[in-house]
Amino acid sequence: MVYQQISRSVLFRLGSGDPEVAHEQVLAGLGRVGAARPVVEGMARVFGPKRGATVFGVRFPGLVGLGAGADKNGVALRAWRGLGFGFVEVGTVTRHAQPGNPKPRLHRLPESGAVINRMGFNNAGADALAATLRRVGPPGVPLGVSIGKSKVTPVEDAVADYRHSLRVLHPFADYFAINVSSPNTPGLRGLQDKAQLTELVGELRRETLALASGSLPPTPLLVKIAPDLSDNAVAEVLQVCADHGVAGLIATNTTLGRGGLDPNDVETGQQAGGLSGRPLTERAREVVSFVTRETGGALPVIGVGGIMTPDDAVRMLDAGARLVQLYTGFIYGGPPLVRAVNRAVESRR
Questions:
Q1: What domains can be seen in the chain, in order of their start residue?
Q2: What's the whole-model pTM score?
Q3: How far apart are CA 191 and CA 226, in angstroms?
Q4: Residue 347 designated active-site
Q5: How far apart are CA 86 and CA 346, in angstroms?
Q6: What is the reported pLDDT for 349?
């Protein structure tokens, strides 16, 4: 309650009202906290999860992770464990460094508990992220790396683009998330089509097999899909995953839909970009439930999208998700939400 009444109000006013500036300032502050390792260790003992699970061969100390997009470049990598997260996903990162789309490109819709972003994969590039991860060291929890296509790369060259990022980041990743579902990079969502996804996933799977060393298994590959796909399109994605040894699915990314907005947010809601937060809660859960039914639970799913309360997380797990991720919920609920979700999830088991 204190966070919602005081801290969030202060954070939302940072950066002269620009949510992106506020986000960067918070990351910088968390980065400084993360550098104080004894502090993070102490926080993790108090606020960290108490129960974990092994999913697609990776041991997770907790079921609640930080979603991609929150810390693209690993600025605050070591701080997240202290806030109670059981795993962290950095990125989405691209082969080439890129500034992303023109600003402003991040908009809060507070009455709807939502955010619209058209960031456009702004990041320092795969090689820079690899250098950061090498310097900072492991975050103390499993690390996922979300990889996407550079804007300057033609769609027909996407495979090589993804492959480069996978190669340079392979030493640091506990799993890779293949992002083919952001609405903010032209042509990217077309990679969810069966033929293109088959080529991409097949090549990246061969790459992980080639990079696997000794008795260690290949790094798990997960595919992140959009909530706007039809059931038939999701079923095609699932078939590609089954054919190529994909370890899991992340459901879902942001939506192009604008349903569920509060009337006070309708004007801001017309901004271009992907919508996340409370309006996505039900649809994300529906997709997770569909995937679970279609695969008989054989394909592990990370549920993400509209998890704003502990009950949302529990219902996502009840729908079949093995793990959950927070991003927009964390923006609105802060660290207290992470702790509350951990408690709810652990009480459920």
A1: 2-348 (3.20.20.70)
A2: 0.93
A3: 11
A4: no
A5: 12
A6: 66
